[in-house]
Design goal:
463 residues; alpha+beta; five-stranded mixed sheet; 11 helices
Length: 463
Amino acid sequence: MASRRPRLRHDQVIYLYALLGGLPAVAAAIWLLQRGDYSPLTRWTVDLAVLGIWLGFASALHARVVRPLQTMANLLTALRQGDFSVRARGGARAEALADVMAEINTLSSLLQQQRLSALEATTLLRRVMAEIEVAIFAFDDEGILRLANSAGEKLLGLPAERLLGRTAREVGLEDCLAGEAIRILPRAFGARSGPGSADPRWGMRRSQFRQGGRAHQLIVIGDLSRPLREEELLAWQRLVRVLGHELNNSLTPIKSIAGSLGSLMRKDPRPPDWEGDVRSGLEIVESRADSLARFLAGYASLARLPPPVRAPCDLGALVGRVLRLETSVALHLVPGEPVTLEVDAGQMEQALINLVKNALEASLERAGAAQPAPAVTVRWTVKPDVAEIMVEDNGPGLANSANLFVPFFTTKPEGSGIGLVLTRQIVENHGGSLTLTNRREGPGCVAIVALPRPISGTPESQP
């Protein structure tokens, strides 16, 4: 196979074209000198001068074209090597070559700013990763640890120099690269393990990212023990506050009446109507004791709520059973599209009973003040991924919704503050939600129970 002929470089081509461009004139000048009546010395002197001028202009043209290209090549080499401080001169002139130089200078300035921003962002990221208490690990596609922050070093009890480059199995994180991406890890780690150590619960989250075209996995592990303890402490504080308030409300009048009755019994002689006073006092004590018993029974029902046992349930039949329990006031039913849900029928009935009872009490409260007759409407709608049950009343509406779902908070004289809390817990255990808002088209409130994933349609059933 014949070897390919070497191609001329760009600068050699420019120089060759410069020579070819002047060659006709030089050849004509030399030919005329040779034909003229000149002495040999004159002819040779002029010939050499013409040849020198020709070669000189060709060389100047070659340099004029090649040197800017070399300058641009040097600038681009500096950019490729990360040196953004080099600038080209002559970029301010109004010519094509100056425009190219100006664009290279602008590119260099832009890259310098971007590099500075990237360095600042990287520094900030490293500082944040070093300061946060969440352990962060990054593994490549071969399961090799490539990144570990300070919290990760503390978690495993080893410095980064002894961790990086080791496999997930070697550092004890092999189980984090498989299974569910978000889960709880009930286990001990490195320096956190040992006799006498606590039994923390670790929250793990796994995600993926790409670096250098290779897939990496990011593992984030956080200690949930402290926030759980803080939430538990807050829950106990709220519970003790509410229990103390309710107990004081009941025990204070009981103590006062008991003291009054004791004083009455110690009098000699006793007043003529002392038996009526004792009977009245004991009735008050009994009433307050019953109220306290209802309160404790409500708390017990809230604490012992079992998980739902789901089964197919026709929504129309479920609502019908709830409405048939109330016979004193007429309830309005607006049936929606027939649908079957996977719910615990007993728990959902209890939740709807609580909502209907609240709606009736609110409507009766407004009707008792010479307002229109009480009206409670129950309806439901079916959407692609949720079924919504709405219980509407024409009562006074919600004045303050901040404490609606605070356990044991109630504005009713005989209320326990349990109904709405229990109802929301039942709905949320089914993966749904409960919201209460004031009606837009008139007075009153509407409670909306949203239950997910209606599974199938059923023949319409009338309650």
